[in-house]
Amino acid sequence: MFDFGEALTVLKQGGRVCRRGWNGKGMYVELQKTDIHSRMTLPYLFLYTVKGDLVPWLASQTDMLGTDWHVTGHEVEDAVQPLIEGGRNWERSRRVGD
């Protein structure tokens, strides 16, 4: 386990992190870098929730001071990828219809 500073390092390297203290199973934070599909112009952190939603995330003071951060594996990648692709497909279809 490590602190938030190290968690940021892991995120910048493309990893996923979570806290032991979080109640929800499978929740994690990931860094989203901008690409051609992004509507955002700067990178941001998002949270994968217990319900499988992807939402923008801001660290609380408790999160920033916590020392129970750890790397989480890519076991949820198969569950997340359809959500990401679905969003991109929706965005493409929306642009075509504009």
How many separate helices? 3
Backbone structural class: alpha+beta
Topology pattern, helix = H, strand = E: HEEEEHEH
Give a count of the beta strands, DSSP E runs of length 2 or more.
5
Please render the helix and strand layout as text.
Elements lengths: L3 H9 L3 E4 L8 E5 L11 E5 L5 E3 L4 H5 L3 E4 L4 H21 L1
Antiparallel strand pairs: 1-2, 1-5, 2-3, 3-4
Q: How would you explain this protein's 3D organization?
A:
The protein has one domain. It contains three helices and five strands. With 98 residues, it is of the alpha+beta class. A hairpin with an 8-residue loop joins strand 1 and strand 2 (28-32). The termini are far apart. It has helices at residues 4-12, 61-65, 77-97, and strands at 16-19, 28-32, 44-48, 54-56, 69-72.
Brief summary:
The protein is α+β, with helices and mostly antiparallel strands and 98 residues long. The protein has helices spanning 4-12, 61-65, 77-97; strands at 16-19, 28-32, 44-48, 54-56, 69-72. Mean pLDDT is 82; it is low at 75-81 and 90-98.
